[in-house]
What we know:
Elements: E1 2-5, H1 6-11, E2 14-15, E3 22-24, E4 30-33, E5 39-42, E6 49-51, E7 54-58, E8 65-69
Parallel strand pairs: 1-8
Antiparallel strand pairs: 2-3, 4-5, 6-7, 7-8
The protein binds zinc ion.
Amino acid sequence: MSSVGLAQVLSENFYCIRCGEWVYCPEMNQKCRDEQGKEVEKIGEGCLHQDEKGEYLECPSCKERFYIEE
Ligand SMILES: [Zn+2]
């Protein structure tokens, strides 16, 4: 099981550490507003998966899961 920092995923291309496949890029971020009405970026809908351990990105090639750390 691997993990990756949320800030890193939102700001730079992310490649699978196992097979090198491209997993996510910042262009896929979604903008939304937090409780204070401030615009924040989050991981694009449909890219983020969820299981009992938390939210994760999945490598499309080797299916490695990268859990998001805040
Ligand atoms: Zn991979």
